[in-house]
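Milestone M4 deliverable, item 7.
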Amino acid sequence: MIIGITGKSGAGKTTISNYIKELSEEFEVIEVDKVVKYILENDGIKRINHEMKQRYNMGPYEKHDITHSFFRNSIEDKMLDELFKMEIDLETLKRVKELQQKGKNVIIDWYLLEYSIRLMEICDKIILLKSPNDIRRKRVIKRGNYKPDIFVLNDKSHDPKNEIKYDYIIDTNKEWKPIIKNIILKDIASLPLISVIVPIYNSEKYLIECIESIINQTYHNLEIILINDGSTDSSLAICMKYKQLDSRIKIINQKNKGVCSARNVGMKMSSGDYIAFVDSDDFIEKDMYYILLRNIRKFNADISRCRAFIYERDGKISNNRKTSENILYSTDKEIMEAYVSGKMSIAVWDKLFRREVIKNIEFKDDVFNEDAVFVWDTIKNISTVIYDSAQLYHHLKRTDNSLTLATFNDKHLILDNYSKKQCDKISERGQEYRNIASIFRFNSLIHILKRYKRDSDKKIPLEQYSKEIKSIISKLEKLIESEKVYLKKRKIQEAYDIIELLKNKLGGNL
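Output delivered:
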């Protein structure tokens, strides 16, 4: 969106432009005064000095005088030639394009906007500010020997004497903030809707910070769906309180069915163009969804992803390494390779999903680590993912987290059959996908063994799974033997170390 703001000097263009930025950080302001100053300071001073000398017999000006006195005197009195007008327009249009490529909305602040048909034509809305009094301190302009000259219009200019249709005319000496707020928020409502789904279970300790971080996003057009999954603490009361404060919040209250059910219900109830997930014990940076949406639209991607701060159980941040990069994965093979290699996280909370790509996908409650399965089921059928290395999500590893506390069970073993089916489907795509299939299968089998080893080291009785674990060890050994060309040596050695330890636990050779 491009908003043009015009009006006499002192009518409040800069004040209102800055207020719009406060309402939505999606806007950036181009002050055309500064564009003119840039042109004069960089390549126009000699030409302007020469022109002043020829027309008015005025001597050379210092840079300050040229960019302020001459600019204010000559332009305000319409002493602009065609060439100089064109320079202003082209430089302004270039800056507009640069901001749009960054996903920004643009405000053009220019008190001679009516004299440029080029700039008028690109504005979606034009606001004229009228004020009989300067709402700021009056400028004192030293006019010297200056005399007004004739203003020359070119064929691309709009004659200000003709009738101009403004979208809004605002008297800035009266209360103007409600008018501007209504204009901007109405336009924000026409922007894509993001549904933010938050499953909640006994999260009273963290929930306020979580909700506050969502409602204070710089991107406003959100549908915030809070699913209370049978909490027995004050989580529901906290949700109800925030619903009264923010009309974007919807609350779903259900008996405890688990995070998969809560998320699935949230997706069914959502109406957004894009879907995002936040865990109730986490929080997000204020510009997270603005950045993710900007990237997903800019690159026409199916998923937009960022990095996260990971808080370990002792409170320390484990990955506070600052990087600055964007990576575009533009084929299904690139995306799957990023997933199996660990370059793409298996979490859902650091991503923004285009609705179409997940509309037929649900979180599976019968498989361990539902996030990983959901992300895999999504990425294997898409073609574009954009990654931004900015850390925008704060993820807390809780000691009472259900995934952390879960002991080895049947869900871990189901991963064996799931990964085998996925491996077969990947292989059907052709020989060039064999490395992905092999690594995916390897990662799944080694994950099962790691979980079994972790719990057996804790002296948790797991004898009932001995037969299945022996079978998985055998499958992993055969996989390494046949597919080792696709596996990293370090990973192979790690697998053999675990296999040896488990063989000893389970009674020697298998």
